[in-house]
C-alpha cells in the first residue's frame, strides 16, 4: 500500500487501479478484539441499535454471514471488502435506525407496514436492507428475501412453460436456488415453529403433498423436483401468509430492487419468442402478492433502484421507478431515503480503512480532499480509496 501524502488524490490512470485483493494481509498488526475502537460499538445485536450507536461500526459474525448472507444480500464491492479485510462490519446509519424504530413500535395485529428504501446510486440502499435483514433474523421473523430481483428477469438460467399455471413461464432453476437460500436462512426457526401445510398440493397424477405435512417437506420437494419449484414457492408463500395471519409466525418480506417487478421489459421469452412481463413469471407473482397489505404479523421492506429497471433510470424517486401501477400497488408506504455520508460517518469509514491498513498516513488536508472529491458518497469513497 502507498503512503498517502498531500495532495491526497493524484491523477492516477484508472487502468492502474488495484483490486481489493491486492490489500496487504497484516493480521498480526490488527487490533485485538479486546480493544474497543472509538468508531466501533460492541453492541452487535441490531435489535438493540439506537441513535446512541449512530455512525459506529458493528460486527456481523461469521456464523451470521454464513446463515443469512451466504447466497447474497451484500453488494459485490462489499463482499470483496469482507474478503480483503477479513472482517464484516456494517455502519449504523440513520435510514436503518429509522426502519428499526418503526419495526419496534409497529402493531403487528394490523395490516403489514411497507417501507421503501430509495436514494441515489451508491448511497447504501442494499446495506441498509442488510442491516434490517440481520434485525429480522435475530427477532425471529421468517425471512422472505430476494437479494436482487432483477437477476430473475435479466440473467435467465432456464425458462419453461408453467407446469401449473397455463399461459405463464416458470424459472425452475431460479426457484430451486431461492428455496435453498430460504431453507438456509430459516431452517433453525422453521424447526422450532413446526408449521404444517393447510391444503393438499397435487403436482401430477403420482406426486402430491397432503394437508398437515411439515412445511419443510414442501420446501424440500421444490428443491429436489425443480420442475415444480415455482409451484412450491407459491405454496410456501401462501402458507406463510396464512400462518402469519393466524399468529403462528412473523414474516418479513425483504426485496432488493423491487421495481424490477414493475418493469415493462425482461429478457424472458416464451416458445414463440414473445417477451414475457414480470406478472407472467410464476416465480415473481407470489412475491408481488406478498407486498399487498392483506395480511398481518409481518412487514415489507423493499428497495427501489435505478439499476433494477432498464427503462427507468432518470430519477431515483419511488414514484418514477415504480411507475403508476407499482406505486399504487404499494401505497401506502413509508419512504426511507439513503444519502451520502454525514461528516461523522465519513470519518468513521476513514478510521476503519486505517485500521484495516487500506489507507495509511493520511494527513488532515488529504482526508479533507478525499471528502471533497467524493462528496462523501459511500460508493465513491470505496472506489477512490482503491488508488491510495
From TrEMBL:
Its main location: mitochondrion. The keyword Lipoprotein does not apply. It is found in: Mitochondrion. Keywords: Mitochondrion, Ribonucleoprotein, Ribosomal protein, Transit peptide. Pfam families: DAP3. GO terms for molecular function: structural constituent of ribosome. The keyword ATP-binding does not apply. GO terms for cellular component: mitochondrial small ribosomal subunit. It comes from the Eukaryota. GO terms for biological process: apoptotic process. Belongs to the mitochondrion-specific ribosomal protein mS29 family. This is Small ribosomal subunit protein mS29. It comes from Ooceraea biroi (Clonal raider ant). The lineage of its organism: Eukaryota, Metazoa, Ecdysozoa, Arthropoda, Hexapoda.
Amino acid at each position: 500500500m502507498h503512503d498517502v501524502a498531500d495532495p491526497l488524490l493524484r491523477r492516477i490512470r484508472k487502468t492502474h487501479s488495484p483490486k481489493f485483493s491486492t490489500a496487504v494481509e497484516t493480521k498480526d498488526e490488527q487490533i485485538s478484539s479486546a480493544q474497543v475502537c472509538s468508531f466501533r460499538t460492541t453492541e452487535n445485536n441490531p435489535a438493540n441499535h439506537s441513535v446512541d450507536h449512530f455512525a459506529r461500526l458493528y460486527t456481523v459474525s461469521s456464523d451470521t454471514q454464513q446463515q443469512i448472507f451466504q447466497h447474497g444480500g451484500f453488494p459485490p464491492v462489499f463482499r470483496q471488502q469482507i474478503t480483503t479485510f477479513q472482517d464484516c462490519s456494517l455502519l449504523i446509519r440513520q435510514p436503518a435506525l429509522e426502519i428499526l424504530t418503526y419495526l419496534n413500535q409497529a402493531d403487528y395485529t394490523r395490516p403489514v407496514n411497507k417501507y421503501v428504501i430509495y436514494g441515489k446510486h451508491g448511497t447504501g440502499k442494499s446495506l441498509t436492507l442488510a442491516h434490517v435483514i440481520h434485525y429480522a433474523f435475530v427477532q425471529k421473523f421468517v425471512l422472505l428475501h430476494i437479494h436482487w430481483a432483477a437477476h430473475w428477469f435479466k440473467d435467465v438460467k432456464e425458462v419453461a412453460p408453467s407446469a401449473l399455471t397455463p399461459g405463464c413461464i416458470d424459472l425452475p432453476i431460479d426457484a430451486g436456488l431461492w428455496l435453498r437460500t430460504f431453507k438456509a436462512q430459516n431452517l433453525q426457526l422453521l424447526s422450532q415453529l413446526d408449521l404444517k401445510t393447510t391444503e393438499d398440493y397435487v403436482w401430477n397424477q403420482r406426486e402430491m403433498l397432503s394437508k398437515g405435512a411439515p412445511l419443510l417437506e414442501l420446501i424440500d420437494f421444490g428443491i429436489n423436483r425443480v420442475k415444480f419449484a415455482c409451484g412450491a414457492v407459491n405454496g410456501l408463500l401462501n402458507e406463510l401468509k396464512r400462518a402469519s395471519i393466524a399468529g403462528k409466525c412473523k414474516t418479513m418480506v425483504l426485496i432488493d430492487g423491487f421495481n424490477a417487478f414493475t418493469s415493462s421489459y425482461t429478457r424472458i421469452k416464451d416458445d414463440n419468442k414473445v417477451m414475457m412481463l414480470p406478472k407472467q413469471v410464476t416465480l415473481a407473482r407470489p412475491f408481488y402478492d406478498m407486498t399487498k397489505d392483506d395480511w398481518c404479523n409481518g412487514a415489507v421492506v423493499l428497495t427501489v433502484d435505478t439499476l433494477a429497471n432498464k427503462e427507468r433510470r432518470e430519477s431515483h424517486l419511488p414514484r418514477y421507478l415504480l411507475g403508476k401501477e407499482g406505486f399504487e400497488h404499494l401505497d401506502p408506504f413509508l419512504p426511507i431515503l439513503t444519502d451520502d455520508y454525514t461528516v461523522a460517518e465519513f470519518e468513521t469509514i476513514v478510521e476503519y480503512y486505517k485500521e484495516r491498513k487500506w489507507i495509511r498516513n493520511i494527513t488532515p488536508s488529504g482526508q479533507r480532499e478525499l471528502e471533497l472529491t467524493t462528496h462523501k458518497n459511500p460508493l465513491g469513497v470505496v472506489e477512490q480509496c482503491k488508488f491510495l
